[in-house]
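Ops channel
N.P.: pipeline sanity check, posting one input/output pair.
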């Protein structure tokens, strides 16, 4: 699978305080967010590299109405605890991308109501309007919003490259299983060094592992 910077964008999924910071709703439930914070730092470095190469940077945030009326089964049956604690509510600190991410005016920031970056957002329009047929992907969590987005990208015949060090989960087994699933049928899993080298070079080929 060939990466070409001229047809690529960097997609950074849900790097928001609720998933990354010790005062966010995830940590408040007793989950360790340190792996997600480390992955976020890798994502921020990729964003800087992408901008230097004139590759569009797209950030997503998982955001629901303050009353969760648009949350559907996610907040009522699948993950009811989210509704009970008011997680991902518009206007809350949990949905904000940290200042250290360095989001720039020319970046795209898309709010989504479900796991996939394509569902209920303008992502398809952004990609089509700019002729983007490849995505380099980082973000959290690997097994939920990252994998959902990667699967949807693959169904659109978008070449997708997941940066191993730039994704993370709260559970290592789930993280590993998700990487295996994506590598099997939806994306190439590449290292951070491979990603930055491909961005700088403008193109690279990643064979089937």
């Amino acid at each position: 699978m060939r990466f070409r910077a001229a047809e690529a964008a960097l997609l950074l999924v849900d790097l928001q305080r609720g998933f990354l910071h010790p005062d966010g709703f995830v940590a408040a439930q007793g989950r360790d967010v340190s792996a997600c914070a480390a992955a976020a730092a890798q994502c921020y470095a990729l964003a800087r590299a992408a901008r230097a190469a004139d590759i569009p940077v797209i950030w997503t945030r998982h955001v629901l109405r303050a009353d969760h009326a648009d949350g559907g089964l996610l907040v009522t049956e699948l993950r009811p605890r989210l509704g009970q604690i008011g997680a991902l509510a518009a206007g809350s600190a949990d949905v904000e991308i940290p200042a250290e991410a360095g989001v720039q005016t020319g970046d795209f920031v898309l709010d989504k109501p479900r796991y996939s970056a394509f569902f209920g957002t303008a992502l398809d329009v952004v990609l089509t309007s700019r002729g983007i047929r490849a995505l380099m992907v980082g973000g959290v969590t690997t097994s939920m919003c990252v994998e959902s987005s990667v699967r949807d990208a693959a169904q659109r015949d978008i070449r997708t490259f997941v940066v191993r060090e730039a994704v993370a989960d709260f559970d290592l087994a789930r993280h590993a299983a998700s990487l295996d699933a994506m590598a099997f049928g939806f994306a190439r899993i590449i290292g951070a060094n491979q990603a930055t080298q491909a961005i700088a070079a403008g193109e690279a080929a990643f064979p089937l592992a």
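N.P.: looks fine end to end. The chain has a mean pLDDT of 96.
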